[in-house]
Design a protein that fits this description.
The complex is a heterodimer. Chain A has 12 helices and no strands. Chain A is an all-alpha fold. The two termini of chain A are 25 Å apart. Chain B is α/β, with parallel strands linked by helices. In chain B, 38% of the residues lie in helices and 25% in strands. In chain B, the strands form 2 sheets. In chain B, strands 6-7-8-3-9-10 form a 6-stranded mixed sheet, sandwiched between helices. Classes of the chains: A mainly alpha, B alpha/beta. Chain A binds chain B through residues 1-4, 6-8, 10, 175, 177-178, 180-188, 191, 195-196, 199-200, 202, 274-277, 279-280, and chain B through 55-57, 74-77, 79-81, 83, 85, 87-92, 100-101, 104-105, 123-125, 127-128, 131-140, 143, 148, 152, 170, 173, 177.
Chain lengths: 280, 261
Amino acid sequence: MTAADGAVEIERGAGARFGARFGGSALVVLVPLALLCLWEAAGAAGLLPTGLIPTPTMVIRAWYVWTFGPDTGGFNAYSGTWTDVVANSAQRVVVGYILAVLLAVPIGILVGWSNLVAKLVDPTLQSLRPIPITAWLPFSIALFGIKDYGAIFLICLGAFYPILINATHGARSLDQNLHRAALMMGASSRTILFRVVLPNALPAIFAGMRIGAGIAWSAVIVAELVAVKSGLGYVLWDAYYIGRMDVVVADMASIGMFGFLTDCLLIALQKRLVRWRSVA
Amino acid sequence: MTSDAINLTRVTKIFGGAKPVRALDNVDLSIGKGQFAAIVGPSGCGKSTILNLVAGFEKPTSGEVRVDGKPVRAPGPDRAVVFQEAALFPWLSVWENTVFSARARGQPKSAYEDKARQFLARVGLADFHEHLPTQLSGGMKQRVGIARTLVMEPHLFLMDEPFGALDAQTRIDMQELLLSVWDELRRTVVFITHDVDEAILLADVVFVMSARPGRIRSRVPVELPRPRSIDLITDPAFVALKRDIFNQIRHEAQAVRVAAN
């Protein structure tokens, strides 16, 4: 019969199309490059407040020394310490974020799927949600002291809610006929939960995980500004106090870079796990 | 009567809400074992509600629904459903969708693999095992929807306007496919449609429903020889049946308009 005629061509060119639109042309770097040049020129022309706002070349030099410079054994805190500083922050983000995913995904799915679970835990979750993570800072210091746990707690809390809400939404958005199809094929509640509700919620879970990752990086900075004495957030304030604005900007750029890399990682993971969505 | 595959006894279904809707009103219906029954009627007459009750997706407000003499309590793999929009799991390949029921019920591979391969070939999808539903046309999706019910080897096929969303040519292909598959299996089928041609072409018996509240208006036996093909639709006997059923439906539609005025 005519089955073959109706086949829709597989779209394998999604990556290539993206490349043609962005990577292939120089357009994508045009605006950032122009802004950097403008900034540099403003510095050279003496338009920037001297000693307060560094030029891009000053930032890059500071960043280079911070990363590759000799470790002076504490004499210069911003020589050769970048890797350690980043490792401190990244470690907290990874632990707090994974904890958030492990908690939020199952709870979110169950809240979305079971009215009983929703009635039991949703009021508690929703009444705590409007409290911003910054408001939790003193509480978390009181609870954990100036330790890693406080930062991890804040990161976990910050990433938890967007993942939870999206997982709940994903579980609730199951098409009635897909549920009925599973029922008529003799699937148990367990099978439906793991083989139907969960995969159906996966795109929403990933949307939540991407938002959550952004919040996790904000949370680690906030925690390190106040509650911990290491990491990118701590350096941010520390460098400011001793007037090293070049390091401050290099630190900001580092945070942005890691936020971006985390997002790229999640997109790559999503493409692997939610292949069925990107094909359409 | 225990020889019936399906029995509805004084079934009433009211959908609650701010304005309750009486979808079915005192419906009595029996469909014999191995019979291909079509149910036609104006839209909103409760055709699909009958199917959902037999499938176990809905419960009657009053009355009783029996399948093989036993009251229907919940959906189950003895009653396979083909949905209008195929309702395939988009994250599973054609193959995984087809064997979903077997895997969900923990059957060993040996019990279903040959069968699934055979039925996929039967519906013309032998070369599409690894495709995802989004890569298939509407007709191909519905072929998977049919193949996965064939693998279940149910007592009963419940088909809810399965070809309603397809274009005319694909529709004819699918009707001929269904005719030839049914000729091999001869299982009980309940086929919901608003297309009278389709009902007569496929069925042994056509039930005509009246508009809201839904009742069975008449039972029209279709005594046309099998195997049938699409050419049948120009046959005088076919045309006579069609005229008869059309008149009944038109009458219903008019009654609704009069009632509305």
